[in-house]
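Incident log, support desk, overnight shift.

02:14 A customer reports that sequence design results differ from what the structure should imply. Their input is reproduced verbatim below. On-call engineer (initials T.W.) acknowledged and began investigating.
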């Protein structure tokens, strides 16, 4: 499984992206995948093979770094310059690395499938998150 290598300084929501604001549940960096804790409402790093069901359900991409308890912005839908080299037309999913993004072709056994979106260019991921709730 090979996650995208993201340059955090290059991550940005593009025009038309939906963005939510909240508090970081842990230290996070730009370009990592977020989940939202159902109890606290704080955002943490999503993980496709976490033992905790809620952590396996991504809600967006962190747009900047934040320490635990600090304000954070999360792109939840639409175009995001992801800070990595993408393959246009490729579907990207949550990976088994906390906060990681991988091509759908790299999904492995035991991962819960969550599509993050499709690359519309070599730099832009169009977020349209769908979680299956089913492990491979």
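02:41 Re-run completed on a clean worker. Output:
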């Amino acid at each position: 499984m090979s996650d995208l290598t993201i340059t955090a300084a290059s991550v940005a929501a593009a025009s038309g992206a939906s963005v939510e604001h909240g508090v970081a549940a842990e230290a996070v960096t730009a370009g990592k995948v977020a989940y939202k804790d159902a109890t606290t409402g704080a955002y943490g790093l999503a993980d496709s093979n976490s033992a905790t069901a809620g952590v396996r359900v991504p809600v967006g991409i962190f747009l900047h770094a934040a320490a635990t308890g600090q304000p954070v912005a999360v792109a939840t839908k639409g175009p995001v310059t992801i800070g990595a080299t993408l393959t246009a037309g490729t579907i990207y999913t949550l990976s088994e690395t906390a906060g990681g993004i991988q091509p759908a072709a790299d999904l492995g056994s035991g991962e819960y499938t969550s599509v993050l979106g499709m690359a519309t260019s070599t730099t832009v991921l169009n977020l349209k998150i769908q979680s299956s709730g089913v492990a491979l």
